[in-house]
Amino acid sequence: MIFRSKAPLRISFAGGGTDVPPYPQERGGAVLSATIDKYAYASLIPGGDGHIEVQSLDYDIVAKYHTDERLPYDGELDLVKAVMRNLGTPSGFRLFMHTDAPPGSGLGTSSTVVVNLIGLFQRWLRKPLVPYEIAQLAYRIERIELGIKGGMQDQYAATFGGFNFIEFLGETVVVNPLRIPRELINELEYRLLLCYTGKTRLSANILDRQISSYQQKKRDVVAALDATKELAFELKRALLTGKLDDFGDLLHQGWEMKKRFDSAITNAQIDTMYAEARKMGALGGKVLGAGGGGYLLLFCPFDRKHLIAERLEQLDGQVVEFSFEQSGVQSWQIGAHVQ
């Protein structure tokens, strides 16, 4: 048999930063996000000889191991090794992985890769994991076991899929799926513009400084995080009531708050692209993820979107078409003859 899986990347509309410990444990966080039709993919072909071969298209790596080895965390395919350690490898296998967006792009790529691998191994090994357990394991692997800096939202978004309002209440995470009418989703897809700025970012450095500023209780950073959390609730209300112009304006307010977390969240290129988009009619937007590069999301008037897209591409941006994805991580299996 061949086992396959895919998990969707996500767009975070509001609340990002309030899911980064220790803020959610001390003050409670909230994030509004939705998954899109960009994915992390994986295929696994079991083998009986104890040999493991992992091919990552994203990093252009082919690595070979053996099931008897205690694989060290050494910076090479550590996400794969950690999933293998936690879920087991009863036999050898060949694993092929790739994603639709580069690491560091702000779409939650690394967390989605972990969720996807857990979904794949769950299918192969017939592990009875429910969605919350998948997301919790992915968080533990990435943030605690491997020590990769980041928040708590991405693992839950990739696992559950769709539009979600996710609350972080101490050590408890509550995923609230939002029932968004199809016509409203269509309108969002019609008016949202996603543009790759051409640069990935080193989110760990930004997050280190953000965490440090919060732990020092710097007033401006704490106030910005608190305001960002409140905006997540306001954006949810605007979305559920269909007030999309308010939704666009709140995105702008959220971006202004986010820039107060750390000076590296934006740069001259991002500021120029955002200012040009606003000048041409965009109601609001934000850089996705921790900031510093990656994808820029903009909410546009329907009759100005194409003009804004043209201007961003003149500024070396790359506009990317997308739709929303309502499903979370999925896995399936096929006969080896269906290749």
Automatic annotation (TrEMBL):
Alphabetical GO biological process terms: GDP-L-fucose salvage
Keyword hit for Glycoprotein: no
Coiled-coil residue windows: none
Keywords for the protein's UniProt record, in alphabetical order: ATP-binding, Kinase, Nucleotide-binding, Transferase
Taxonomy, superkingdom: Bacteria
UniProt KW Kinase keyword: yes
GO molecular function, one term: fucokinase activity
Domain GHMP kinase N-terminal residues, every copy: 80-162
Record domain GHMP kinase C-terminal: where: 236-312
Pfam families in alphabetical order: GHMP_kinases_C (PF08544), GHMP_kinases_N (PF00288)
Similarity-based family: Belongs to the GHMP kinase family.
PANTHER family noted in UniProt: L-FUCOSE KINASE
Protein's recorded name: D-glycero-alpha-D-manno-heptose-7-phosphate kinase
